[in-house]
Amino acid sequence: DLHANFKPLNESLVASYVKSQPRLGAILGGTSADWSVKEVGDGNLNFVYILEGPKGSFVLKQALPYVRCVGDSWPMTLERAFFETTVLREHRRLAPNHVPEVYHFDHPMALTVMEYLAPPHIILRKGLIAGTVYPLLAQHMAEYMASTLFHTSLLALSTLQQRKEVARFCGNIEMCRLTEQVIFTEPYMEASNNRWTSPHLDADAQALREDAIIKLEIAGLKSKFCEKTQALLHGDLHTGSIMVTQESTKCIDPEFGFYGPMGFDVGAFLGNLMLAYVSQDGHATSENDREGYQLWLLKTMGDTWQLFSERFVALWDKNWGAGDSYKIEVYNTKELQSLVQKTYLSELFQDSLGYAAAKMIRRIVGIAHVEDLESIPDLEKKVACERRALNFAKQLLKERSKYSDIRQVCNALQGSQ
Ligand code: ADP
Ligand code: SR1
Ligand code: MG
Ligand code: MG
User: What spacing in Å lies between the alpha carbon of 32 and ligand 2's midpoint?
Assistant: First the structure.
């Protein structure tokens, strides 16, 4: 058993652990008496400690054998730490500016030590709730997603190379099954995990469970999630998995990483920006109506897709024939290449919109909600924001094929009620 020597840590055991690892102690400097250890985990799954010493600092993240936000009634594989570390290392190689460095991984202890993203870095979701503008966010996320997705796809790799990687990440079964359950299945049935603002949204949740078209659409997205090994995904790219300052954007927490459809990552980011957008009405005050901020959010959604698709195509142009998908001997004219790119990007756009919608819906009626909506102080306003998000997401899921341009989607969101 790989985890036979697993031991759950707490703040004081973390210090003893670091003491037993001279390489880690040397990063902090001084002796253990000089170190501060603080548990800061605010995510749904794991425990995260910040360690600071006279010379340096790092973050130590440990997976426990259950889902933190539920407790030990929901067991969960420790192997998620291995997949998280492996994706962090691979994505950092591909997008070094947007992924923290891993310093140490202890497989039996399901524990990763990584670069501490010190303040002013904060979780993007919190910045969006506060109404802070991040001028480089779209550019940085476009760069992160284009680099990681392109370079792990068959546009860049041979089938021999990619199949080996796919096989490695196939092992992240439990995390994929968690996503299948809480995103693609439970929101569309009666399930004890589900919750919504009740009784206000009871009829909305019921209507969702009775909507045949929605069920057909979600089945298609779920199949693609399970069947399409298009690229190495982050797998949980919501705004709580991104840390930001005005100048910096870093993607953390890829424990759900696996080879899946690219649109699942792009859609996670766009869908969470959409949730941030609709929730602004609930955070508006007489001093700040948040209207200007909503325009910035729309622009960020538009710029993200625009810059992402441009960067993706630029990488493809530079690497024609590198991967096995489109052999240069077959796709041998500029016209044909450009047609292939258009078709590929348009399917990716449709997937991204579909997954964006699915990600929004699960946050209103499923097990895991988002602070953007949960923190709205006025109940009636919260319900109005949640209903708007749900209705917009349903419409997007059903009618996404009518959109060929991100600006049309942004306009529809702006006009939604
Ligand atoms: P979970 O898997 O439980 O969601 P996360 O990896 O998202 O855990 O981390 C939980 C919280 O810990 C984050 O919201 C962030 O506040 C903090 N955190 C995680 N990694 C870092 C890091 N490298 N630097 C600074 N803070 C971090
Ligand atoms: C029990 S569901 C927990 C959720 O939190 C994670 O960050 C994933 O989004 C997962 O679906
Ligand atoms: Mg997290
Ligand atoms: Mg996580």
Answer: 34
Tens of pLDDT, residues 144-163: 999 999 999 999 999 999 99
| Strands annotated E in 223-379 | 231-233, 242-244, 249-251, 258-260
Provide the number of structural domains found in the chain. Answer: 2
Which ligand is nearest the CA of 120, by number?
A: 1
Distance separating alpha carbons of residues 30 and 19, to the nearest angstrom: 11
Nearest to 279 by CA among 367, 397, 384, 205: 384
Residue finishing a domain among 64, 80, 114: 114
ipTM of the complex: 0.99
* pLDDT attached to residue 250: 99
Average pLDDT over the chain reads: 98
Task: Say if residue 264 is in the same domain as residue 285.
Answer: yes
Interval 204-213: pLDDT, tens: 999 999 999 9
**Distance between CA atoms of 168 and 331, rounded to whole angstroms?**
30
The percentage of the chain sitting over the pLDDT mark of 70, rounded to a whole number, equals 100
Verify whether ligand 2 is closer than 6 Å to residue 236 (CB atom).
Answer: yes
Cα 324 to middle of ligand 2, angstroms = 34
Cβ of 76 closer than 6 Å to ligand 2, yes or no, is no
User: Which residue's CA is minimally distant from atom 8 of ligand 2?
Assistant: 236
